[in-house]
TrEMBL record:
<dbReference type="InterPro" id="IPR016137">
    <property type="entry name" value="RGS"/>
</dbReference>
<dbReference type="InterPro" id="IPR022709">
    <property type="entry name" value="SCAI"/>
</dbReference>
<feature type="domain" description="RGS">
    <location>
        <begin position="78"/>
        <end position="137"/>
    </location>
</feature>
<protein>
    <recommendedName>
        <fullName>RGS domain-containing protein</fullName>
    </recommendedName>
</protein>
<dbReference type="Pfam" id="PF12070">
    <property type="entry name" value="SCAI"/>
</dbReference>
Amino acid sequence: MSTGDVVPKTFHALVESAERKFARVRDVPLHPYAGSGAHYGHFFHKVFKAYMRLWKYQQENRVKLVESGLQRWEIGEISSRIGQLYFSQYLRTSEARFLFEAYIFYEAIFNRKYFEGSSKDRGVRFKELRFYARFLMVSLILNHKEMVKLLVEKFTELVEDSKSNFRGTNFKEWKLVVQEIVQFTRADTANLNIKPLRYCAMFDSNAASLPYVARFNAKRLLKFQDAVLTSYHRNEVKFAELTLDTFRMLQCLEWEPSGSFYQKHPVESRENGNLSDHSVASGLIDINLAADMVDPTLPSNPKKAVLYRPSATQLISVIATVCEGLPPDSVMLIYLSAPGDSVTDNTSQIKSLDGSSKFSTSNATSCNHHEQDNFLCQNHVTVNGDGDSSQYFENYLWLGPSRNGGSNCLYPGDIIPFTRRPTFMIIDSDNSHAFKVLHGAERGEPIALFLSPQRPSFKDPSGTDMAQNGSQFTFFLTVPLRAFCQLVGFNLSNDDLDMYNDLENIVSTAFSEWEKILCTSTSLDLVWAQFLLDPFLRRLILRFIFCQAVLTLFRLRESGHQYLPVCIPELPSIVSPKSKAVQSSISRLANRLEVADCFSFHE
């Protein structure tokens, strides 16, 4: 066999070997708690090794492979598969370096136009469409908005071109993907958003309160390393299997690399014979570039299982796996965003609530003052002393579209077995308050609960579609300033940069003050005290204080505790909505936006 035949034969053998290995991990759940983690990790390592061997071989034998008929799309397909593997590893480990590696490979494919000319081959065109969808997902999570904007334009054009060039093929599913990404980006970039959702030392570490945090000590301090995130709402904004709510929460629980680490090494384009190369020689990608893009001083991101429409048993299984492997002195965070209902027929109650429409501002103001004076009563939980367990299974959350049977119903009682370990639970639902019954029913560790309002509040409810904008409570916990602006109907644009900076300074100053109060409080419950040194959980607590205060003081709504969030155990009264430290900050924010008439402040 001649040398010219050996190279392409070896190359195709390596391709077949890599594809066989990839098939073994194709359907592995993409989260850290998927069955035998070490077992799957072993196979992922073998797949990586196979593709890296293939990648190195095509680099070393580039000229001979081109002479034997290697197409550019074949290089693109290998690169795309490696990017897919790296992204899978990011989902399984939450390590940022894998996300950057995926981006590097995808960006190289895009810049070098590996799939250009796919209009002649339907199979290649489908590979290109899948590449665009995957690159969009990585760019979204990395918050590369300019790249996302460019990719959406190119992806839309590609789908339209596919319909024209392959008339016998149904591209309806790809049209739906285009609609999803357009809706997603519209919701994600509807307002000015300079500050990243990820934890950034530049924005989220308050210099004035940092010494207080450093000196803070409690009988017990827990580490946050594991989270389970899932959301389901009918017609909710999503892209692929990532909903807007989980997207926001996912980023909220990660570190933001400093700006210098986003800068990539400049590379020059050049021509190489018959092939038009971009960035560097075609087929040569610096796979170690991500090492220069990740800040080595940052701690590891908490591991996160982002579940898309799991059944109740799947969700419980993942929580059980997290619970079983939770290190000592660690806490598990569970975030659930879903609608709910009760076993009993509450149709008349819902109709009654929906039927009460018009109300006077004076009545609302009066009711709000009453709620401010008595807001703590909403946190009161009655523990059934007679041992009756039915209360734990009277209400539930819907985790999927089917409401028949129990496969999609998660009950408060389903969570009780996992309270043997420290648990921080965030429930964002119109039935969230049903989970109050968990307090006092724990099996070893007192649970920490953030429960959303059962109904959202807006200055102009008719102009806000929650299905298209995500949950208001999650919005407050992840992007509090934008949530405040949405509440009062103020749209921040790129022309409002000075306004934005003023508002961010007010919020940052408020959070710094509340941080000092919490760190020096003698009435802070140990449940919250044990979380306070973790920056992610501390930031969530501060944002909850902000959310609770804003919604309690907001007067353009009907009366009723269904419009207010609940925190169990209670936070100290000194950071309650009626406290001076909190009200003064909300007042400054409202005055700067000239919306003080939307709130009821104590004189």
